[in-house]
Amino acid sequence: MKHFIHAILAVLLLVAGAVACSGGAAQPEPTVAAPTNAPAATEISPTIAVPPPIDEPAADQGTTVTVQGTSFTPRELTISAGSTVSWVHGGGRHTVTAEDGSFDTPMEEGSVFDFQFDEPGTYAYYCRIHGGPGQKGMSGVIVVNP
Fold first, then answer.
1. Residue 79: which of 144, 15, 10 has the closest Cα?
2. With the CA atoms of 11, 13, 16 and 17 taken in that order, what torsion angle do they form, in degrees rounded to the nearest 10?
3. How far, in Å, CA of 17 to CA of 49, rounded?
4. H or E element in which residue 20 lies
């Protein structure tokens, strides 16, 4: 998004510089007479897409977290209220334990744990074997937007 905005600003600065260098006066354009049987030329004005405001809530990033090694991937996930997150076991001995006590499940080889987040908020979780409350070690966060 930043790159898009920077590109638009660069184009606007180039146009403003060109106008300033020409003294602001319009330069006459050469004219070419069209044959009498040709259709008249149509002017096309450029359009610029305006990005949405930056303060909008983040869109869902997906709803799957991989549990492997000593990490949850992604470590932070943003979803909408009512979405279900799936933790997919990728190997090793782990748990998925919510700091608020709303879920606590062991993960076995090849297992999947699903949990639906109905209320907006921030939900911290961790692995009881490799992490701890307060985002220590193997831990993650689910951010639920309205």
1. 144
2. -110
3. 22
4. helix 2-21
Look up tokens 């799936």; give the residue: 86
Global pTM exceeds 0.70: no
Render pLDDT for 92-121 as a digit per residue (tens, 0 to 9): 899 999 999 999 999 988 899 999 999 999
The domains of the chain are located at 64-145
pLDDT in tens, 123-137: 999 999 999 999 999
Helices (H), the chain: 2-21
CATH number 2.60.40.420 is the correct assignment for the domain at 64-145 = yes
Q: Which H or E run includes 122? A: strand 121-132
Cα separation, 126 vs 141, in Å, equals: 9
Scanning the structure block, which residue is given the tokens 């090849």? 110
Backbone phi, then psi, for 19, in 5-degree steps?
-65, -40
